[in-house]
Write a structure and sequence with these properties.
Monooxygenase; mainly alpha
């Protein structure tokens, strides 16, 4: 195995592992209030366009890394929409304290 390919493989694993805590926290707490829908949606569009370039390259670590980013950003978008919709039932939800408080409206 040559050095660039080894470096690409190692960095792919490190980048993917660095995303796992964010994904785990998002699915566990269902609190994505610190994320912007515009940012998550733009990331998905950009990843879709970037796929045209990445998948034109020979198979290698970049394919796996980009595939992971595609999956992670798509999950974040789905979770953002799903968890936001489930929290809009007339309650203000403070997940950090585990408290549901009736909205004052």
């Amino acid at each position: 195995m040559n050095l660039p390919l080894l470096a690409g493989a190692i960095s792919t694993v490190l980048f993917a592992v660095s995303y796992l805590p964010m994904l785990a926290k998002a699915v566990h707490t269902r609190d994505l209030s610190s994320y912007s829908l515009v940012n998550i949606a733009t990331t998905n569009v950009a990843n879709g366009l970037y796929s045209v370039y990445v998948f034109s390259l020979p198979i290698g670590p970049i394919w796996f890394l980009h595939g992971f980013y595609l999956l992670a950003s798509a999950l974040m978008l789905v979770w953002f929409i799903r968890f936001r919709a489930s929290d809009n039932r007339g309650f203000i939800v403070d997940r950090s304290r585990g408290i549901d408080v009736r909205a004052l409206a």
